[in-house]
Design brief:
141 residues; 9 strands; 16% helix; globular
């Protein structure tokens, strides 16, 4: 009987790029491969991560998705997930983390942005541009 071989891979490693009191941005690189067990992880904050390189599977026990460059991984604070690399080794993402209160403020501000520019939900569905009178007056200097 052969002894189990210990993987030399570390899994996801995050390096902080920038941060504030209630947000942070991290460069996340994972070196797991097809022979490694999936990494079990938890979102500590509301997270939006953009996949920059490689492919990997991510999800919960009931739902999984294949993520690839250009994909976004969205996570609620406290949610658990796992990532695996059956299609090749490693991945690279940039992750934006927000405290729940800040994310709610950003989301509610974005939801009201259409009304601020003079757009109604009906005009957005119809593909109509915003009313010119609602835009700031831009006269040449």
């Amino acid at each position: 009987m052969e002894a189990a071989v210990e993987s030399a891979h570390r899994g996801p490693v995050a390096h902080r790029i920038a941060s504030g009191a209630d947000w942070s941005i991290e460069n996340v690189v994972c070196d797991l491969g097809p022979n490694d067990k999936p990494s079990h992880e938890r979102f500590n904050r509301t997270t939006i991560a953009a996949v920059l390189a490689r492919t990997f599977e991510c999800g919960t026990r009931s739902k999984k998705a294949l993520l690839y460059p250009g994909s976004f991984l969205l996570g609620n604070a406290g949610s658990h997930f796992e990532c695996g690399h059956d299609h090749g080794g490693g991945d690279h993402c940039v992750a934006f983390h927000f405290d729940t209160a800040l994310f709610e403020e950003i989301a509610s501000s974005a939801a009201g942005a259409a009304r601020f520019l003079g757009m109604s939900p009906r005009s957005l569905r119809a593909g109509k541009p915003p009313v010119a009178a609602a835009l700031p007056d831009r006269r040449p200097i």
